[in-house]
User: Which sequence fits this backbone?
């Protein structure tokens, strides 16, 4: 089973000049990027996500602020990740129910393995549980 994990990106620079971090499919990323999007302008304690992808993979990078990402895999195991450092990313494999709690004005960037396809999303938790139960058989 593909498992969620923190990816640490190379941090180049110093406090005096600032930093740059790079994510490359032949390096830190476990897939080629087909889509990039970001969420911003979030109100205090807003929640995003509440869905799973059937086939899509993503790496979430917190550009600014803080986030708590709660993932549930197909076997019901729940893992919580705290994101606050822009030189790390969270790899989210397919078939993980995702909830993201963002601090006020947080900016979270998603590097996705697929282009947007609504049919790849499961947006109802009960349907997610049914879908993964069938997949385990």
Assistant:
């Amino acid at each position: 089973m593909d498992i969620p994990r923190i990816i640490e990106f190379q941090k180049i620079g110093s406090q005096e000049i600032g930093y740059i971090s790079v994510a490359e499919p032949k390096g830190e990323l476990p897939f080629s990027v087909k889509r990039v999007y970001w969420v911003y302008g979030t109100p205090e304690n807003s929640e995003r996500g509440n869905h799973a992808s059937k086939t899509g993979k993503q790496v979430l990078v917190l550009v600014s602020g803080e986030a708590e990402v709660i993932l549930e895999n197909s076997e019901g195991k729940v893992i919580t990740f705290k994101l606050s450092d822009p030189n790390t990313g969270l790899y989210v494999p397919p078939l993980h129910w995702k909830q993201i709690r963002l601090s006020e004005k947080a900016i979270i960037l998603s590097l996705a393995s697929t282009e947007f396809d609504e049919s790849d999303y499961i947006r109802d938790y009960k349907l997610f549980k049914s879908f993964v139960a069938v997949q385990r058989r």
Notes: The radius of gyration is 15 Å. Helices lie at 125-136. The longest strand covers residues 46-53.
